Amino acid sequence: MLQAIYGGKSELSEPGGKPRGEGAVCKDEEGARIRMEATVLGHRVTHSQSHWQTVETFRTYIEQIIVPDYRKVCKEEGLRVGEQRALLQLDVYPVHTSAETRDWLKLHHPYIVLAFVPGGCTGAVQIPDTCLNRPFKASVHESFSTCVVTNFSAQLTAGVLPPALRMDFKIAPVSWIQ
Description:
Layout: E1 3-7, H1 29-40, E2 44-48, H2 55-77, E3 86-90, H3 94-97, H4 99-108, E4 112-116, H5 122-125, H6 127-157, H7 172-176
């Protein structure tokens, strides 16, 4: 299960983010479909102003992804929730190592034991980075590059000169994320 963090001040920055208020209508139907599929698969979509993980989005990750998975494994293996330790391997990103995060985990999930991968070693020894992130990022890069080349090629074929080439990056991701 993954957590995707989009940059923005509100849920409007997320795929399928719905405007609030009377008479508000969500026009991002494709984004809403993608979000629903991700949710059904157990993935979570959230936002932060910078699109980087914050203490709040990390807590959401723990509460909505790590803890439910931990409980599921405990149930499947006949282990007692809270008594069985869970090892969570993380990089040394400041949110992960902060006293605020560690204190919150000790208070709310004392069974989670943190193990930090030393700086500069994440790509070599952290399993999610080597097995999931690297191929995922390569696939996203390739898909996005193909999307850009296809878009610009179509414009050039239609007679648009290079200085006038344009790409709307607000709608482009919907076509290449899949």
